[in-house]
């Protein structure tokens, strides 16, 4: 409930047909009663014709005015009349303004004046707040730049370095914002803002759990560096050359020239096989010889092939071991070491298989196919229809397969095998397309 005590000198300037001031105290009977005061004010207000539905209630000298006033000036005049009434102690003016255009304009003007005065009063605080926020932002940017330079040598991971820089610089800006809210008198809001940051972080973490998991995985991968840009790796069922590691995924360039994105969480949880981490690798292949052939001779021939080939390393030494006795063949497992950064695994394996096969066939060692071929150790007698001709004799040399006398068969590499070089560099050079999500590579190059 509002109590209005306006004087005649404070009335709004508005042109009316009759005077809107009260000359002085209005006399009533010496023994003033609440009912007399109410009746007197009611008669005066009704006589002006400025009010509608006027109801005056006086209790213990407190005058309560209800009704509708035409203008704000008439409303103020009613307050002044009640204040100057003899026996009046206080005035409660509850007159409502009529919804006319003049009163609406008057109220709008009054409100605009009030807002303008309030804006002028708060303008210095607003300017000071903007200056403080701008200064805090510039100071945070300066601290971030200095921190990034100081941490560049100490923290090699760009992602981890960026996180540490933000942890150092963001509190500076938040401190400036807190100071601005304190100046504006919003202490509770400032405390709520700073205290609610942790709660917001928890909510965001639950809402974007997968994104947060990939971000943390990228942070750990960039710190541990299980692979570098350009390494040939196998992870999550995919094999390819590492093209990029961003905050969401690891991008591989497969050997067929396609980009594959693997979420960092899956990469971090999977087994990573890095073929480029060490220069040497071991490879192996199987050969099956007939039971009537000399295993020791086959081992010697294959060992000579391995020792003479330039792609095979002397240390660790190559091994030619009997793996198992099959249904129709003696299976020999051949293992050797080579430099994977220089030679291609597939090309090298192809060359060694070709050379081993040719050497075994030239030496008369059978290479039977267990699915189609049956070997008779003592030979198969041939009976001629001509009784006068002696049966031909069969020898191992005659049953050996004929090998074409081609010089390329003895070369270390054929035209189909190329120069045995590793194809990862060629694949990387041929695939010049833009790497997906390659805004910033978090790996070492």
TrEMBL record:
Protein task: Mechanosensitive channel that participates in the regulation of osmotic pressure changes within the cell, opening in response to stretch forces in the membrane lipid bilayer, without the need for other proteins. Contributes to normal resistance to hypoosmotic shock. Forms an ion channel of 1.0 nanosiemens conductance with a slight preference for anions.
Fetch the InterPro entries from UniProt: BON_dom (IPR007055), LSM_dom_sf (IPR010920), MS_channel_C (IPR049278), MscS_archaea/bacteria_type (IPR045275), MscS_beta-dom_sf (IPR023408), MscS_channel_2nd (IPR006685), MscS_channel_C_sf (IPR011066), MscS_channel_CS (IPR006686)
Stated membrane topology is:
Multi-pass membrane protein
Family stated for the protein in its record: Belongs to the MscS (TC 1.A.23) family.
Q: Where in the cell is it found?
A: Cell inner membrane; Cell membrane
Q: Show the segment(s) annotated as Disordered.
A: 385-445
Query: Superkingdom of the source?
Result: Bacteria
What is the protein's name according to its record? Small-conductance mechanosensitive channel
Molecular function (GO) terms for this protein are: mechanosensitive monoatomic ion channel activity
Q: Which residues cross the membrane?
A: 123-143, 163-183, 189-208
